[in-house]
Amino acid sequence: MNVNRRMKHPGSxxxxxxxxxxxxxxxxxxxxxxxxxxxxVLNDINxxxxxxxxxxxxxxxxxxxxxxxxxxxxxxxxxxxxxxxxGTEVKSSSKxxxxxAIRSEIGMVFQHxxxxxxxxxxxNCTLALTVVRGMSKAEADAVAMRYLERxxxxxxxxxxxxxxxxGQKQRVAIARALCxxxxxxxxxxxxxxxxxxxxxxxxxxMAELAESGMTMIVVSHEMGFARMVADRVIFMDxxxxxxxxxPETFFNKPQSDRTKLFLSQILKH
Amino acid sequence: xxxxxxDDLITFAPPLAQGAVLTIALCLVSSVLAVAIGLxxxxxxxxxxxxxxxxxxxxxxxxxGTPLLLxxxxxxxxxxxxxxxxxxxxxxxxGLSLNFGAYLAELFRSGIQSIEGxxxxxxxxLGLSKWQRMRYIVLPQALxxxxxxxxxxxxxxxxxSSLVAVISVLELMRAGELLASATFEAMKVYTIVAxxxxxxxxxxxxxxxxxxxxxxxxxxxxxxxxxxxDRQRGQIGxxxx
Lengths: 269, 241
Ligand SMILES: Nc1ncnc2c1ncn2[C@@H]1O[C@H](COP(=O)(O)OP(=O)(O)OP(=O)(O)O)[C@@H](O)[C@H]1O
Ligand SMILES: [Mg+2]
Description:
Shape of chain A: globular
Oligomer: heterodimer
Radius of gyration of chain B: 21 Å
Largest sheet of chain A: 6 strands, mixed
Structural class of chain B: mainly alpha
Strand order of the largest sheet of chain A: 6-7-8-3-9-10
Number of helices of chain A: 9
Largest interface: A-B, 33 and 22 residues
Number of helices of chain B: 9
Bound molecules: adenosine-5'-triphosphate, magnesium ion
Order of helices and strands of chain A: EEEHEEHEHHHEHEHEEHH
Mean pLDDT of chain B: 90
Radius of gyration of chain A: 18 Å
Distance between the termini of chain B: 33 Å
Mean pLDDT of chain A: 91
Shape of chain B: flat
Number of strands of chain B: 0
Strand content of chain A: 15-25%
Structural class of chain A: alpha/beta
Largest sheet of chain B: none
């Protein structure tokens, strides 16, 4: 795979003390904390993601990875701290309409695909284009076919999700998100529900997407993918960012003991 | 033998047919109202507003906890005590639609809740508003999941509509009763009444089967909602059969 590495993230931990988002920043998260009831899932998360940057987040189960990326498009609400997406703050006082608008700019791919089973593959891709973007059916169909070709399943356009394999479903989910021409793509363990032989076809599509310059945050334990595609790997545990670094340093010279333990556990498999 | 059966049909069917027409009218009006009531109560029941939700669930409990026969008596014989006098047909429609509305509200709720959160999440992530998610993602799937149970309720409604005979609505059952006591031909009359009910039920069942084919999506499976719901209805009882 010929992946052009982007610049490495400058520092390692935390954010620069300035809080106003700058032009090259796509996402800025400052002092983010979140609770589920009395249980604190996220604890003072600080993270800046630049335009075109590719980030892989890993960490043990329950460490808050999903919750963190779901806060970015407000599938989860946070209690403390600030989140800026392309300069706009996502906050509790935002109107529903503003949130919907921000969400339409952020693509998300889920572990269990979450395709709409009652809609054909093509309709899965065109629903938001027609309903949210107000496109005509013909225009939307054309966009859908373009992206289905890009993920290499145009021939499945008229089938239904229940008729596809897991790998095909996940590629449709990626196409569906890309149809909205998002600025950011969030992936929540996109390959962990897949049979081993289908993982590659999905990772290949993601790697191509990374090459195209898309800003990506990927929660994944696919360390091969992280090494090859990520600009930065983040390790989370107990709702905190424990360590972040470029993949070389992250895998070869992990700093904290928790990271070392985690890496030794997942590399054993 | 056969000719005598045909003779009986010619004699008894026409007076009963009028009753059948009224039964059909009763069921049509009641089912439309029951769906409307069911949707409304379901929305209230699922509302975030505690009071609204509580009122809806009290309504559901009251209706499901008492027999339909009692509800009909209440509307037709008890309401006049407080000055509300309703024509028998209207009272019958009210009883049936209020009763089935409560069951449908719970059926609709179970249908909506059977759609896993990930579906709505995917809609949200694409920028669909709350109502758009309901309209395009949740409801179409919920309808497919509850559809078999919905057909079941339609058939139950047709048969339970016979209860309004007791509040003097001249529908099929009551027409049969009157004809049987006037002619002393209970066997013949009630057999023909049964044939009418069977015919109406058959047509309705066929219509639902056609609808099911039209809604079918390749590779999409319904959930166990309908089965759960039938069991609930069986336990609490919708009134005497
Ligand atoms: N809706 C919720 N209500 C209550 N607790 C929740 C909820 N969602 C997640 N949690 C809890 O928050 C913690 C973090 O969950 P999260 O899904 O973010 O972890 P994760 O790092 O993505 O884990 P995994 O690798 O298993 O997906 C877990 O302990 C989880 O049980
Ligand atoms: Mg997760």
